[in-house]
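Please decode residue identities from the backbone states below.
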């Protein structure tokens, strides 16, 4: 404890040490955030074997507005690597992955929430956010290697019972296609969510921080 007999230079030194520590923590936090941002990789730079239909870079989505300035799929490196392995698995079976969405900036999540505040379909950006905001989730489907459509029962972003993964009131073809999709993705560390057959979150996804860096558009 400091008392009246404590030299003034000792007090000043204590203040300087405290300020140096505080500034160091701020700088460290900034550096960590930059490091997290730099850890996102562009899937197209890792493999040319994916197909893309980035809906939020178009008006063809549940909002009916363009939300992204460009069509890119960014993910955490380990998530992208696992997705590449999953795609190799599907390709061996005559299919390939078609991407609908990957990393999503938090500001886009806030816009979605302002228009559709339904937590069962849109992650609350003022709570835990979406796994997409962490670069650890992918929205996707399958198509054949020839580019033919694979029926999954609904389109992407269909908000209703028909899209739920526990809905079995579907044709044998659709159930078989979903089974192929779910089992293939689970082999490589991805898990679906109950209300969206197209959404897959990578394991340990809450270890990643929420990001709001814009997509690196040309």
């Amino acid at each position: 404890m400091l008392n009246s007999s404590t030299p003034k230079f000792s007090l000043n030194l204590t203040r300087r040490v405290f300020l140096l520590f505080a500034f160091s923590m701020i700088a460290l936090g900034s550096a960590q955030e930059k490091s997290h941002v730099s850890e996102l990789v562009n899937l197209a730079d890792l493999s040319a074997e994916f197909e893309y239909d980035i809906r939020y870079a178009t008006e063809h989505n549940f909002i009916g507005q363009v939300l992204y300035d460009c069509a890119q799929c960014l993910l955490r490196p380990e998530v992208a690597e696992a997705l590449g392995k999953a795609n190799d698995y599907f390709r061996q079976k005559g299919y390939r992955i078609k991407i609908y969405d990957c990393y999503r900036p938090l500001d886009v999540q806030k816009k979605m929430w302002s228009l559709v505040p339904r937590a069962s379909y849109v992650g609350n950006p003022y709570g835990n956010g979406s796994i997409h905001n962490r670069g650890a989730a992918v929205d996707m489907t399958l198509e054949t290697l020839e580019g033919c459509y694979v029926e999954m029962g609904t389109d992407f972003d269909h908000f209703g019972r028909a899209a739920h993964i526990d809905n079995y009131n579907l044709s044998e073809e659709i159930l078989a296609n979903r089974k192929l999709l779910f089992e293939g993705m689970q082999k490589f560390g991805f898990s679906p969510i109950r209300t969206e057959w197209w959404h897959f979150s990578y394991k340990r996804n809450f270890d990643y921080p929420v990001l709001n860096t814009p997509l690196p558009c040309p």
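Observation: The chain has two domains: 1-38, 41-207.
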